[in-house]
Protein backbone atom coordinates (compact mmCIF):
# COMPACT_ATOMS: atom_id res chain seq x y z
CA UNK A 1 0.00 0.00 0.00
CA UNK A 2 3.03 2.31 0.07
CA UNK A 3 6.08 3.11 -1.96
CA UNK A 4 9.16 0.86 -2.12
CA UNK A 5 11.55 1.38 0.81
CA UNK A 6 15.30 1.64 0.55
CA UNK A 7 18.08 2.51 3.01
CA UNK A 8 20.04 5.74 2.66
CA UNK A 9 23.66 5.35 3.75
CA UNK A 10 26.86 7.38 3.98
CA UNK A 11 30.46 6.23 3.35
CA UNK A 12 32.91 5.97 6.25
CA UNK A 13 36.63 6.61 5.73
CA UNK A 14 37.45 3.00 6.66
CA UNK A 15 35.26 1.74 3.84
CA UNK A 16 32.32 0.70 6.02
CA UNK A 17 28.82 1.91 5.25
CA UNK A 18 26.80 3.65 7.94
CA UNK A 19 22.99 3.58 7.91
CA UNK A 20 21.67 7.07 8.67
CA UNK A 21 17.93 6.76 8.09
CA UNK A 22 15.19 4.87 6.31
CA UNK A 23 13.51 6.83 3.58
CA UNK A 24 10.87 6.26 0.93
CA UNK A 25 12.27 6.18 -2.58
CA UNK A 26 11.89 4.50 -5.92
CA UNK A 27 15.31 3.29 -7.06
CA UNK A 28 15.53 1.84 -10.61
CA UNK A 29 17.13 -1.58 -10.78
CA UNK A 30 20.02 -1.33 -13.24
CA UNK A 31 22.53 -3.92 -14.38
CA UNK A 32 25.29 -2.06 -12.53
CA UNK A 33 23.35 -2.29 -9.27
CA UNK A 34 22.48 -5.94 -9.57
CA UNK A 35 26.12 -7.05 -9.60
CA UNK A 36 26.66 -5.52 -6.12
CA UNK A 37 24.66 -7.66 -3.70
CA UNK A 38 26.08 -9.39 -0.62
CA UNK A 39 29.03 -7.44 0.79
CA UNK A 40 32.24 -9.12 1.90
CA UNK A 41 33.35 -8.13 5.41
CA UNK A 42 36.78 -8.44 6.99
CA UNK A 43 37.41 -8.23 10.74
CA UNK A 44 37.10 -4.43 11.00
CA UNK A 45 33.98 -4.31 8.87
CA UNK A 46 32.45 -7.20 10.83
CA UNK A 47 32.95 -5.29 14.07
CA UNK A 48 31.33 -2.24 12.51
CA UNK A 49 28.40 -4.03 10.87
CA UNK A 50 27.53 -6.32 13.77
CA UNK A 51 27.33 -3.29 16.05
CA UNK A 52 25.36 -1.35 13.40
CA UNK A 53 22.98 -4.25 12.87
CA UNK A 54 22.30 -4.43 16.61
CA UNK A 55 21.76 -0.71 17.15
CA UNK A 56 19.67 -0.23 13.99
CA UNK A 57 17.19 -2.97 14.93
CA UNK A 58 13.63 -1.72 14.77
CA UNK A 59 11.64 -4.60 16.26
CA UNK A 60 13.61 -7.73 17.04
CA UNK A 61 17.17 -9.05 16.98
CA UNK A 62 18.34 -12.67 16.66
CA UNK A 63 21.94 -13.71 17.39
CA UNK A 64 23.19 -17.27 16.91
CA UNK A 65 26.76 -17.82 18.17
CA UNK A 66 28.38 -20.72 20.04
CA UNK A 67 30.63 -18.59 22.27
CA UNK A 68 29.88 -15.34 24.07
CA UNK A 69 32.14 -13.02 26.03
CA UNK A 70 30.98 -9.56 25.05
CA UNK A 71 33.29 -6.59 24.74
CA UNK A 72 32.18 -3.37 26.41
CA UNK A 73 31.40 -1.90 22.99
CA UNK A 74 29.20 -4.79 21.88
CA UNK A 75 27.41 -5.04 25.21
CA UNK A 76 26.63 -1.32 25.08
CA UNK A 77 25.15 -1.88 21.63
CA UNK A 78 22.96 -4.67 23.05
CA UNK A 79 22.03 -2.45 25.98
CA UNK A 80 21.09 0.38 23.60
CA UNK A 81 18.80 -1.97 21.67
CA UNK A 82 17.32 -3.30 24.91
CA UNK A 83 16.64 0.21 26.23
CA UNK A 84 14.89 0.95 22.92
CA UNK A 85 12.49 -1.94 23.51
CA UNK A 86 14.08 -4.33 21.01
CA UNK A 87 13.39 -7.99 21.77
CA UNK A 88 16.70 -9.84 21.57
CA UNK A 89 16.97 -13.60 21.12
CA UNK A 90 20.39 -15.20 21.67
CA UNK A 91 21.15 -18.87 20.97
CA UNK A 92 24.53 -20.12 22.19
CA UNK A 93 26.22 -23.52 22.47
CA UNK A 94 25.23 -25.60 25.47
CA UNK A 95 27.66 -25.38 28.43
CA UNK A 96 29.74 -22.69 26.68
CA UNK A 97 28.54 -19.64 28.62
CA UNK A 98 30.20 -18.75 31.91
CA UNK A 99 27.98 -17.86 34.90
CA UNK A 100 29.46 -14.35 34.90
CA UNK A 101 28.66 -13.77 31.21
CA UNK A 102 25.19 -15.32 31.59
CA UNK A 103 24.43 -12.95 34.45
CA UNK A 104 25.68 -10.03 32.35
CA UNK A 105 23.52 -10.69 29.29
CA UNK A 106 20.56 -11.78 31.42
CA UNK A 107 20.43 -8.21 32.70
CA UNK A 108 18.85 -7.30 29.33
CA UNK A 109 15.15 -6.86 30.05
CA UNK A 110 13.89 -7.97 26.66
CA UNK A 111 16.07 -11.07 26.27
CA UNK A 112 15.13 -14.59 25.16
CA UNK A 113 18.07 -16.89 25.95
CA UNK A 114 18.40 -20.38 24.48
CA UNK A 115 21.15 -22.98 24.21
CA UNK A 116 21.73 -25.59 21.50
CA UNK A 117 23.89 -28.74 21.81
CA UNK A 118 25.64 -28.50 18.44
CA UNK A 119 25.41 -24.95 17.13
CA UNK A 120 28.65 -23.68 15.59
CA UNK A 121 27.46 -21.07 13.07
CA UNK A 122 27.63 -17.33 13.68
CA UNK A 123 24.67 -15.29 12.48
CA UNK A 124 23.23 -11.87 13.34
CA UNK A 125 19.78 -10.86 12.02
CA UNK A 126 17.48 -7.88 12.64
CA UNK A 127 14.80 -8.37 10.00
CA UNK A 128 16.52 -6.13 7.43
CA UNK A 129 20.18 -7.14 7.65
CA UNK A 130 21.90 -10.49 8.12
CA UNK A 131 25.58 -10.95 8.89
CA UNK A 132 26.81 -14.53 8.43
CA UNK A 133 30.41 -14.86 9.48
CA UNK A 134 33.16 -16.57 11.45
CA UNK A 135 33.10 -14.07 14.35
CA UNK A 136 31.63 -14.98 17.72
CA UNK A 137 30.18 -12.40 20.06
CA UNK A 138 33.56 -12.45 21.76
CA UNK A 139 35.92 -9.65 22.77
CA UNK A 140 39.07 -11.65 21.96
CA UNK A 141 37.85 -12.34 18.42
CA UNK A 142 37.25 -8.65 17.79
CA UNK A 143 40.79 -7.72 18.84
CA UNK A 144 42.97 -10.63 17.74
CA UNK A 145 41.41 -12.92 15.15
CA UNK A 146 41.34 -12.72 11.36
CA UNK A 147 37.64 -13.07 10.64
CA UNK A 148 35.48 -12.84 7.55
CA UNK A 149 31.83 -12.90 6.59
CA UNK A 150 29.10 -11.44 4.38
CA UNK A 151 26.37 -8.86 4.82
CA UNK A 152 22.97 -9.53 3.23
CA UNK A 153 20.39 -6.76 3.04
CA UNK A 154 16.69 -6.79 2.15
CA UNK A 155 16.56 -3.19 0.95
CA UNK A 156 18.86 -1.41 -1.47
CA UNK A 157 21.92 0.31 -0.02
CA UNK A 158 23.19 3.41 -1.76
CA UNK A 159 25.34 6.44 -1.08
CA UNK A 160 25.95 9.82 -2.63
CA UNK A 161 29.31 8.84 -4.19
CA UNK A 162 27.64 6.42 -6.59
CA UNK A 163 28.28 3.14 -4.76
CA UNK A 164 25.15 1.01 -4.92
CA UNK A 165 24.18 -2.39 -3.57
CA UNK A 166 20.93 -3.80 -4.79
CA UNK A 167 18.80 -5.73 -2.30
CA UNK A 168 19.72 -9.39 -2.05
CA UNK A 169 17.69 -12.20 -3.53
CA UNK A 170 14.71 -13.17 -1.37
CA UNK A 171 15.79 -16.79 -1.65
CA UNK A 172 18.94 -16.03 0.36
CA UNK A 173 16.85 -14.61 3.18
CA UNK A 174 14.35 -17.46 2.92
CA UNK A 175 17.08 -20.10 3.28
CA UNK A 176 18.93 -18.26 6.07
CA UNK A 177 15.73 -17.68 8.06
CA UNK A 178 14.71 -21.31 7.56
CA UNK A 179 18.03 -22.47 9.05
CA UNK A 180 17.74 -20.05 12.01
CA UNK A 181 14.24 -21.43 12.69
CA UNK A 182 15.57 -25.00 12.55
CA UNK A 183 18.32 -24.13 15.06
CA UNK A 184 15.81 -22.40 17.32
CA UNK A 185 13.49 -25.42 17.18
CA UNK A 186 16.35 -27.65 18.33
CA UNK A 187 17.37 -25.33 21.18
CA UNK A 188 16.29 -25.27 24.82
CA UNK A 189 14.77 -22.11 26.28
CA UNK A 190 16.45 -20.80 29.44
CA UNK A 191 15.03 -17.31 29.79
CA UNK A 192 11.87 -15.86 28.25
CA UNK A 193 11.40 -12.17 27.61
CA UNK A 194 9.02 -10.92 30.28
CA UNK A 195 6.79 -9.31 27.64
CA UNK A 196 6.29 -12.59 25.76
CA UNK A 197 3.09 -14.55 26.50
CA UNK A 198 3.96 -17.50 28.74
CA UNK A 199 2.08 -19.95 26.51
CA UNK A 200 3.66 -18.86 23.23
CA UNK A 201 7.13 -18.16 21.83
CA UNK A 202 7.09 -16.20 18.59
CA UNK A 203 9.68 -14.12 16.72
CA UNK A 204 8.04 -11.97 14.07
CA UNK A 205 11.13 -11.51 11.88
CA UNK A 206 11.47 -15.29 11.57
CA UNK A 207 7.92 -15.90 10.39
CA UNK A 208 7.40 -17.29 6.92
CA UNK A 209 5.35 -15.40 4.35
CA UNK A 210 2.67 -18.06 4.70
CA UNK A 211 2.48 -17.43 8.46
CA UNK A 212 2.36 -13.65 7.96
CA UNK A 213 -0.37 -13.97 5.34
CA UNK A 214 -2.38 -16.32 7.53
CA UNK A 215 -2.22 -13.74 10.32
CA UNK A 216 -3.21 -11.02 7.86
CA UNK A 217 -6.13 -13.14 6.62
CA UNK A 218 -7.30 -13.70 10.20
CA UNK A 219 -7.08 -9.94 10.82
CA UNK A 220 -9.04 -9.10 7.65
CA UNK A 221 -11.70 -11.68 8.54
CA UNK A 222 -12.41 -9.85 11.80
CA UNK A 223 -13.76 -6.90 9.85
CA UNK A 224 -15.13 -8.50 6.67
CA UNK A 225 -17.45 -10.86 8.56
CA UNK A 226 -18.88 -13.40 6.07
CA UNK A 227 -16.17 -12.63 3.48
CA UNK A 228 -13.55 -15.26 4.26
CA UNK A 229 -9.95 -14.57 3.23
CA UNK A 230 -7.27 -17.27 3.19
CA UNK A 231 -3.52 -17.46 2.30
CA UNK A 232 -2.95 -18.17 -1.40
CA UNK A 233 0.55 -19.09 -2.61
CA UNK A 234 1.56 -17.10 -5.70
CA UNK A 235 5.23 -18.09 -5.86
CA UNK A 236 7.75 -19.93 -3.71
CA UNK A 237 7.86 -17.21 -1.07
CA UNK A 238 4.91 -15.05 -2.12
CA UNK A 239 1.53 -15.40 -0.42
CA UNK A 240 -1.53 -13.13 -0.61
CA UNK A 241 -4.75 -12.95 1.40
CA UNK A 242 -7.51 -13.91 -1.05
CA UNK A 243 -11.30 -14.21 -0.98
CA UNK A 244 -12.87 -16.24 -3.79
CA UNK A 245 -16.38 -15.11 -4.75
CA UNK A 246 -16.24 -12.00 -2.56
CA UNK A 247 -19.24 -11.13 -4.68
CA UNK A 248 -20.69 -13.56 -7.19
CA UNK A 249 -18.04 -14.10 -9.90
CA UNK A 250 -15.67 -11.57 -8.28
CA UNK A 251 -12.53 -12.46 -6.28
CA UNK A 252 -10.54 -10.04 -4.11
CA UNK A 253 -6.85 -10.30 -3.18
CA UNK A 254 -4.81 -8.12 -0.83
CA UNK A 255 -1.42 -7.80 -2.49
CA UNK A 256 1.57 -6.07 -0.91
CA UNK A 257 0.74 -2.53 -2.08
CA UNK A 258 -2.68 -2.81 -3.66
CA UNK A 259 -5.97 -4.70 -3.80
CA UNK A 260 -6.55 -6.85 -6.89
CA UNK A 261 -10.13 -7.42 -8.05
CA UNK A 262 -10.77 -10.18 -10.58
CA UNK A 263 -14.06 -10.30 -12.48
CA UNK A 264 -14.66 -13.87 -13.62
CA UNK A 265 -16.93 -13.51 -16.66
CA UNK A 266 -16.72 -15.01 -20.15
CA UNK A 267 -14.35 -12.87 -22.23
CA UNK A 268 -17.00 -11.36 -24.50
CA UNK A 269 -19.12 -10.26 -21.49
CA UNK A 270 -16.07 -8.93 -19.65
CA UNK A 271 -15.01 -6.96 -22.71
CA UNK A 272 -18.46 -5.35 -22.82
CA UNK A 273 -18.32 -4.41 -19.14
CA UNK A 274 -14.85 -2.89 -19.60
CA UNK A 275 -15.98 -0.83 -22.61
CA UNK A 276 -18.94 0.58 -20.65
CA UNK A 277 -16.68 1.34 -17.68
CA UNK A 278 -14.17 3.23 -19.82
CA UNK A 279 -16.85 5.64 -21.08
CA UNK A 280 -16.93 7.30 -17.66
CA UNK A 281 -13.43 6.33 -16.52
CA UNK A 282 -12.07 8.38 -13.62
CA UNK A 283 -9.21 6.83 -11.70
CA UNK A 284 -10.07 8.90 -8.61
CA UNK A 285 -13.76 8.00 -8.72
CA UNK A 286 -13.70 6.24 -5.36
CA UNK A 287 -12.74 8.61 -2.53
CA UNK A 288 -9.48 7.66 -0.84
CA UNK A 289 -8.46 5.38 -3.68
CA UNK A 290 -6.96 5.37 -7.14
CA UNK A 291 -7.77 2.50 -9.49
CA UNK A 292 -6.54 1.08 -12.79
CA UNK A 293 -8.23 -1.34 -15.17
CA UNK A 294 -6.01 -1.29 -18.23
CA UNK A 295 -7.92 -3.75 -20.37
CA UNK A 296 -10.60 -6.40 -20.03
CA UNK A 297 -8.02 -9.18 -19.68
CA UNK A 298 -6.23 -7.41 -16.81
CA UNK A 299 -7.14 -7.34 -13.13
CA UNK A 300 -8.63 -4.18 -11.68
CA UNK A 301 -6.18 -2.71 -9.16
CA UNK A 302 -7.18 -0.50 -6.26
CA UNK A 303 -4.45 1.66 -4.64
CA UNK A 304 -4.41 4.17 -1.85
CA UNK A 305 -4.80 7.74 -3.13
CA UNK A 306 -1.79 9.66 -1.81
CA UNK A 307 -3.87 12.85 -1.90
CA UNK A 308 -6.13 11.36 0.77
CA UNK A 309 -4.94 11.72 4.37
CA UNK A 310 -4.42 8.07 5.29
CA UNK A 311 -2.31 9.11 8.30
CA UNK A 312 -5.52 9.72 10.25
CA UNK A 313 -6.50 6.09 9.76
CA UNK A 314 -4.22 4.43 12.29
CA UNK A 315 -6.53 1.80 13.78
CA UNK A 316 -6.72 -1.60 12.07
CA UNK A 317 -10.51 -1.63 12.37
CA UNK A 318 -10.91 1.73 10.64
CA UNK A 319 -8.27 0.91 8.00
CA UNK A 320 -9.97 -2.32 6.94
CA UNK A 321 -13.37 -0.67 7.05
CA UNK A 322 -12.03 1.87 4.54
CA UNK A 323 -10.59 -0.91 2.35
CA UNK A 324 -13.95 -2.69 2.42
CA UNK A 325 -15.67 0.55 1.45
CA UNK A 326 -13.37 0.92 -1.58
CA UNK A 327 -13.93 -2.69 -2.69
CA UNK A 328 -17.70 -2.37 -2.29
CA UNK A 329 -17.76 0.85 -4.34
CA UNK A 330 -15.99 -0.97 -7.19
CA UNK A 331 -18.52 -3.80 -7.00
CA UNK A 332 -21.43 -1.33 -6.92
CA UNK A 333 -20.08 0.24 -10.11
CA UNK A 334 -19.79 -3.21 -11.68
CA UNK A 335 -23.39 -4.00 -10.78
CA UNK A 336 -24.57 -0.79 -12.42
CA UNK A 337 -22.96 -1.85 -15.69
CA UNK A 338 -24.19 -5.45 -15.76
Average pLDDT number: 86
Instruction: Please give the CATH class of the largest domain.
Output: Alpha Beta
User: What integer value in Å does the Rg equal?
Assistant: 24 Å
Would you report the number of β strands? 20
Helix content: 25-40%
The CATH architecture of the largest domain can be given as: 2-Layer Sandwich
What percent of residues are in strands? 25-35%
By DSSP (H or I, 4+ residues per run), the number of helices equals 9
Measured distance between first and last alpha carbons? 29 Å
Pick out the low-confidence regions: 1-36, 159-164
* SSE pattern: EEHEHEEHEHEEEEHEEEHEHEEEEHEEH
Query: What is the CATH H-level superfamily of the largest domain?
Result: Endonuclease Chain A
Please name the CATH topology of the largest domain. Answer: Endonuclease, Chain A
Structural category: alpha+beta
How many domain modules? 2
Strand order, sheet with most strands: 3-11-9-8-4-6-7-14
For the report, how would you describe the main beta sheet? 8 strands, mixed
Shape call: elongated
How would you summarize this macromolecular structure in one to three sentences?
The chain has 338 residues and is of the alpha+beta class.
Characterization of the model:
The protein has helices at residues 31-34, 43-55, 72-83, 99-105, 139-144, 170-185, 209-224, 267-279, 316-337, and strands at 5-11, 17-24, 39-41, 60-64, 68-69, 87-93, 111-116, 122-125, 129-133, 137-138, 149-153, 157-158, 164-165, 188-191, 230-235, 238-247, 250-254, 259-263, 289-292, 300-304. With 338 residues, it is of the alpha+beta class. The chain has 2 domains: 5-206, Endonuclease, Chain A, CATH 3.30.870.10; 209-337. α2 packs parallel to α3 (72-83).
